[in-house]
Structures are given as structure tokens and as C-alpha cells.
Amino acid sequence: MSTSLAGKKSDDNAVTGIEDPILRLTKQVMKEYHFQTMRDNHDIYYYDGNRGIYVKGGEGKIEEFCQTNLETIRNHLVQEVIGQVSRRTRIDREEFDSDRDVIVVDNSLLNIHTREKVEFTKDHLSLIKLPMPYDKEAKCPNIEKFLGEVMDSKEDRPNWGSKHNYNSTITATTAPTNCS
């Protein structure tokens, strides 16, 4: 459906019997991929479900999709589809990575307070991923050794560990599973 200049909705297909290829390709590519377009600079990102984050390169995905699905498509039509997707998917950059309680790690989304792991989802808007898996059972011998050296008594260490759960905390400086 489109809106005429008079503001009335009309169905282009009903008049011509032919579906607009730009509209058809736009709907198809948006069904195949999930896009978000930054309102500030119009960069198009697409959701990479294997990585659990949005990545740059949405225009390339749209171009490939259009070429594959309509072999004789012209450049100006591809640009029209890109424009349609861009205008339909605008979002403020601040909406990405705005949930400070949830981070993306190699194997899931992780709530840093509850340690709950959740499967990747396009609904979690993130551009950042920590390049390590979360392992609740991981041991950190170097941290345990350090705590043994700086804490007055062994009684302090279990309280600190259970309170702060240092064995399973992920930081950018820890190795994936052994914290060495």
C-alpha cells in the first residue's frame, strides 16, 4: 500500500497487477536479515546471530541479496532498496550496549550480576563482544594465589570469594578459562 498525495491509501498492485520490485526486495531482505541504521551517520548494521552482535556491512548484505534474488537488477534499484531499509530501521546509537547488566561473550549473553546465561537474540542491541566464553566452573589459580598473599587469614578468602564470585567474573584482562 502507498499513500497518494491526497492522503488516501491505495494498493499499487490492485491498479497495475504488478508488485513493485523495490518493495518486494525490501520486504524479502528485511525478512532474511535484521538491520539497524544509525540515525547519526546512516551506517547500516545487520545482526550476526553466530556472533550475537550487530556488525557493520548491512549495505553489502542488501546488495548481495538483491543481486542473488533479481539477477538483472540495476544499480539504481539496489540503491532504492538500501534507502528503503535505511529509512525503515533508524535507531539512536545510544540504544546499543545500553543495558549495563548484560554483556555479550563468546557463548551467550551474560547478566553480570546474576550470572544467568541467555541465548543470543537480535533484540539485545550490542556492537561489543568480549572474545571469551563464560564458564561458571572456571578456576583462577593466579587470583586465588594473590588473595592468599594479601589477605590476613584463610577465613577472609572464602567470604571474599563468595561475596564477589571472583572465579567466574569476566574481565578484559582474564584468559578464557584459567585466569592465568
Explained architecture:
The chain has 6 helices and 9 strands, in the order ββααβββααββββαα. It has a 4-stranded mixed β-sheet. Strands 7-8-9 form a 3-stranded antiparallel β-sheet, with no helix packed on it. The protein has a two-stranded antiparallel ribbon with strand order 1-2. It folds into 2 domains: 2-95, no CATH class; 135-180, no CATH class. The protein is 34% helix and 16% strand. The longest helix is centred in the middle third of the chain and has 14 residues, at 75-88. It is elongated and about 80 Å long. The chain has 180 residues and is α+β, with helices and mostly antiparallel strands.
Question: Secondary structure elements and their pairing?
Answer:
Layout: E1 2-3, E2 9-10, H1 12-16, H2 21-32, E3 35-38, E4 44-48, E5 53-56, H3 58-69, H4 75-88, E6 90-91, E7 102-105, E8 108-111, E9 117-118, H5 141-150, H6 156-164
Parallel strand pairs: 3-6
Antiparallel strand pairs: 1-2, 3-4, 4-5, 7-8, 8-9
Helix pairs in contact: 2-4, 3-4
Q: How does the helix and strand content classify structurally?
A: alpha+beta
- Per DSSP, the total helix count is 6
Number of domains: 2
Give start-end ranges of low-pLDDT stretches.
Answer: 1-10, 159-169, 171-180
Spatial ordering of strands, largest sheet: 5-4-3-6
User: End-to-end distance, in Å?
Assistant: 60 Å
Shape: elongated
Radius of gyration using CA atoms only: 24 Å
Q: Give the helices and strands as they follow along the chain.
A: EEHHEEEHHEEEEHH
Helix content: 25-40%
- Number of E-type strands: 9
The whole-number mean of residue pLDDT values reads 82
Give the strand content.
Answer: 15-25%
Q: Largest sheet at a glance?
A: 4 strands, mixed
